[in-house]
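Let's do one together. I've listed all components of the complex below, 439 residues spread over two lines.
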Amino acid sequence: MFLDANNIPYEPKYLDLLKGGHKTEEYKKISPPQIVPAIKQGDFKLFESVAILQYLAEKYSVPDHWYPKDLQKRARINEYLHWHHMNTRWKGGLLVMLKFVFLPHFMKVEVSAEDQKAAIEALKGTLDSFEKNFLKDNKFIGGDEITIADLMAIGELIAVDCLGIYVGKGRPKVEAWHNRCKEALGSHYDEAHKTLYQVGATLKASLSAPIDF
Amino acid sequence: MASNLIFYYDAISQPCRSVLMLLNMAKISYEGKILPLFTGEYRKSAELAAINPQRYLPVIKDSNVQLFESDAILKYVADQYKVANHWYPTDLAKRARINEYMSWHHSNTRQSCIGLFRMVYLAPKFFNKTVDEKQRQEALDKLNKTADFIESYFLKDTQYINSDNISIADLLAVCEFSQLIIVNYDVTQGRPKTAKWMQNIKSTLGNVYEEAHEIVYKYQKEAANA
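Okay, and this is what the predicted structure of the assembly comes out as:
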């Protein structure tokens, strides 16, 4: 979304994760931990989405609001970008995906109903903190304009929508923020989420029961 | 350099030590407020709750800036106080390399080290939990995988993490590993590059490292005598 919204030219290389496209020796040379996303520019290679966004924002001199040069504003964005991993991901979107889809259906590891319920509760707790710590009364995370922090949050929180969990349900602040992000990103949002909803239909079908959220 | 910086911390916390060491190495003046974690006293601090509603350390207040998340604090301090460039290089490609580690750190070094530490030390000490051997082995496997990757990738061709000079990435990583001496686990065993890296860090940081780790040595001794 960031690349497209800023008209940064790039050659996309699609990797089919569900078919282990990231496990090839060829990809290992670009991303040694074999995680996505990664970028390559000549000899320069980089993994970790946060690091990539921080790098691109500076390299391509994109509009300042994405990753402000003002240190105080930037610190707010960095605060979210780092909180994101252990909260929005590991106590949020990723945890839910893990407990409801990846473990039971792809890795054939049994997950108790208790564990699954705990994942949903963790997500709810994270959404509470997200509203209180970061959205507050702002239009976007930490301010009035969209930033790379919002892109990271959208990525993780909206992923679970394909499982029938809409994080804006009963949370008008989150819903309003989501709508503002969609508006700010326009067709780039839709393009980026096309695959999610296509693949998502399969993931949702693999659930043993609708998720109570 | 004069500042209005207030730093809330407890040196027993790994990310707190990282920030503490940067502040001291860069000789940034600050007012330190210790909020003890093990006694639970930190939860009573209204100042902490005002900066971080989830009440975890470290946090800073610098004039009208309030921040939590050690990574964000390290980056802010490095840029705001114009510390020596190697801590957080301004060259884009070099900075990207540091950011790469600092982002990877959370789900890997941090998660695996705190996971093991919580299981074998904090949970038994504070909640009387017994250690499940299978889970302990899984936690150890995850930690070993993480340490192996640091040895083979982040320290592959450089003296420090993704760099020939010490940076805030190293401060984050070393504090997670140094915590494990309390539970008698040494990640440098069988990892020569990691061993050399830790030696380099201790040598570069000198007294700053030793003073920051006084509390760790105290708990290590206590655990050994238990």
